[in-house]
Design a protein that fits this description.
- The chain is mainly alpha-helical and 320 residues long.
- The protein folds into two domains: 7-188 and 288-317, 3-Layer(aba) Sandwich (Rossmann fold), CATH 3.40.50; 201-282, Orthogonal Bundle (Tyrosyl-Transfer RNA Synthetase), CATH 1.10.240.
- It has 14 helices and five strands.
- The chain has helices at residues 21-37, 48-51, 58-74, 92-101, 106-110, 113-120, 127-130, 132-141, 155-171, 213-221, 233-239, 245-254, 259-284, 288-317; strands at 7-13, 40-46, 82-86, 147-149, 181-183.
- α4 (92-101) runs parallel beside α14 (288-317).
- The chain is globular.
- The relative contact order is 0.15.
- Bound molecules: tryptophanyl-5'AMP.
- Tryptophanyl-5'AMP is lined by residues 10-14, 22-23, 26-27, 47, 50, 136, 139-140, 148, 150-151, 153-154, 157, 188, 190-191, 198-200.
Length: 320
């Protein structure tokens, strides 16, 4: 698998619920496209330890983890080309996180957007949430990643990973880490939800990626439209993910003010797009053992790479 002429790509998704089309267009589709470009050694993982901040029920965690593995394969991730694994199967992630914890300061973490948002909501914040960017830096830096495909909301986390890499090498006078770059596609950096805000599980404005036709219809009908213009902007902004704008413009022109027609057309387009993936996923779901084997194989490859890096880290800090 590892090929030195190729760049390394890493990314992950939290198993905290059904992925939505914002996750897909913002990040997961890029995982598949970049895998198929043949230019990267790809590692895509299930960020279960990040998810543990939210999912604190063993059965639910098991179910959501298997679900996300199915999702990954159904969208086209190919275990022959990409190592797909669970973060918790590679203990080096949490070990490196601890090492970073000793050099990262609390005021620095208090500046993280996610922490500030949680604080603004007056939540009782657990240490795992506070420490989230540090574990994420470990996820990325362990594999000498060159690129990290993500949506806009993760940009700051990649900056944190770079800062932490530089700080480590500065303190320990080493050249241990490579500086990663985020890979954010501008046109889909922030996919809007049914209410026009960023699509997000926590806003309840999502269209699930593997939605049934009924679910698609329900979500599309709930898209917020205002009657101030001819074009329902929130409908259009989701529609452009599924059909080229050159085709959309005449359609919207011909249906000025006819929001119901446009919503129906959007339902058709989303359903046509999702259907083959939904069917592939249903087939895969019949053989969960096969999926678990894929995760184990991916973990083996990841552990091998991670152990090598961790050894270099341990030498740099002087524990070996
Ligand atoms: P998560 O699970 O919240 O989201 C997965 C990916 O989906 C992107 N995304 C969006 N992109 C565009 N528009 C939207 N509305 C939208 N909503 C979500 C996210 O930006 C993300 O890329 N912290 C990460 C998981 C993680 C990770 C990592 C990622 C843990 N370790 C290391 C990369 C590298 C997260 O919470 O993603």
């Amino acid at each position: 698998m590892p090929n030195t002429s190729k760049k390394t790509l890493i990314s992950g998704v939290k198993p905290t619920g059904r992925p939505h089309i914002g996750n897909y267009f913002g990040a997961m589709k890029q995982f598949v496209d970049l895998q198929d470009s043949g230019k990267y050694d790809c590692r895509i993982f299930i960020a279960d330890y990040h998810g543990l901040n939210l999912i604190q029920d063993a059965e639910e965690m098991r179910r959501l983890t298997l679900d996300l593995a199915l999702d990954y394969i159904a969208i086209g991730l190919d275990p022959k080309k990409t190592s797909i694994f669970k973060q918790s199967d590679v203990p080096a992630h949490t070990e490196l996180c601890w090492i970073f914890d000793t050099i990262v300061t609390m005021p620095y973490l208090m500046r993280a957007h996610a922490f500030k948002d949680a604080e603004a909501k007056d939540k009782e914040i657990n240490v795992g949430t506070f420490n989230y960017p540090v574990l994420m830096a470990a996820d990325i830096l362990l594999y000498d990643a060159d690129v990290v495909p993500v949506g806009q909301d993760q940009k700051q986390h990649i900056e944190y990973a770079r800062d932490i890499a530089l700080k480590f090498d500065n303190i320990f006078r080493s050249e241990t880490f490579k500086l990663p770059t985020d890979l954010i596609m501008e046109s889909v950096a922030v996919v809007p939800g049914t209410d026009g805000r960023k699509m997000s599980k926590s806003y309840g404005n999502t269209i699930p990626l593997f939605a049934t036709r009924e679910e698609i219809t329900k979500a599309v009908m709930s898209i917020v439209t205002d009657s101030s213009g001819d074009v329902p902007v929130n409908v259009y902004n989701i529609h452009r993910l599924f059909r080229p704008e050159s085709e959309l413009r005449p359609l919207y022109e011909a249906n000025k003010g006819k929001y119901a027609n446009l919503k129906k057309a959007l339902v058709e387009d989303i359903d046509a797009f999702i259907k083959p993936m939904r069917e592939r996923r249903a087939e895969l779901a019949d053989d969960p053992k096969k999926v678990m084997r894929i995760l184990k194989k991916g973990a083996k490859a990841a552990n091998k790479a991670a152990a090598k890096k961790l050894e270099a880290v341990k030498k740099a800090i002087g524990v070996i």
